[in-house]
Automatic annotation (TrEMBL):
Protein name stated in the entry: Oxidoreductase
Cited InterPro entries: WD40/YVTN_repeat-like_dom_sf
UniProt key word Signal: yes
Biased composition (Basic and acidic residues): 308-321
Lineage top rank: taxon: Bacteria
Keyword Cell cycle listed: no
Keywords: Signal
Record region (Disordered): 298-321
Organism: Dyella agri
Signal peptide (residue range): 1-20
Amino acid sequence: MFKRSVLVLLLAAFASLALADNPPRVRQPTLTPQSSGTTQLLIAVSPVNSRVVWASGAGGTYVVTTDGGNTWKSGVVPGAENLQFRDVYAVSDRIAYLSSVGANTTDFKIYKTVDGGAHWTVEFTNQLANAFYDCFAFWSPDRGLAHSDSVNGVFPELRTTDGIHWQSIAGHMPPALPGEASFASSGTCITTQGKQNAWIATGGSTTARILATRDGGNTWNAYATPLISNGSAGGLSVAFRDAHNGFVGGGDLSSNTSADAATSHDGGATWILTNPPPTPGAVFCVAYVRGLRDRHFSASSNDEDDQGQDRDDHGDHRPPFDRTVVITAETAPNFSSGSAAWTPDEGQTWYWLPTVSGYWAVAFANPKAGWFVGNNGQILKISF
């Protein structure tokens, strides 16, 4: 009996070792190409739900679907033909915001439509020399922030509380490091969560930092990350799945070395590098597969966890895909090929998506409904 018990234990141990050496194959997500109706570069994407999605890009272009991507409608905002829409925020099939950049100071504008793109109103036009607004993000349809590179040591941040008027909150921001800036890679250098939390990823200086607020932008803290940082490197994209747990990606835009990524479990105060993503170049976009809509607008969502309870301590209650992240990465100098990968455990394990190339941004409504957008108007639906 003793020998039999020892044999059973040995067999179990060998089986465990074999499993460690040959981990079980993970089912890759389903990828479905869709037709956007444009050949312009698409830079940013914003799902409302599994049916309604907006994306934006070069040539003043936006695209929208109301049937989950089976059909897309493309359009060009009048007067914006020479601008790039580096970010988009979709509220519904009728209401959306766009932010533009161009060669001139006044080319940064914030546009809004309330009739599905038939008409657009310019809500804000930049007049500050050397400001470059990389991204914006919203807590609700009427409350949001727009983030710019620093100007003379100051971040000229904008905030709206009514979805119409944008005011400077530069006086609330922490001092910038010399040359500190963000990157308009996919419109995801800023993210919001809950009712008042927001995080901004920066680089361009000696340290890549996270700027964080927990009171809607009234006060901010700056935290160092271990990401590479120099004049062409830093944090490019940041996402948080609740008030405490987040993921930041970046790298060096001037080289094609391995991408950088790090996680935080204390609201962005401290960061730990993940295992290296299997993608060359810099991380252009990170997105939690669970999506954002339930966190922003669901009153019953446990993710609005401003009471300090870390749901990682309660694994049985953590929803499926809670720690699953998808990234896109692009390689210098043309940023026209790129790659993508995903991790089920916030960067401990990575899986390359070998057929996904040339996409700048990715975002999810839920695990079954996510979208890549990128070069030549290409759109790819991703479903776990």
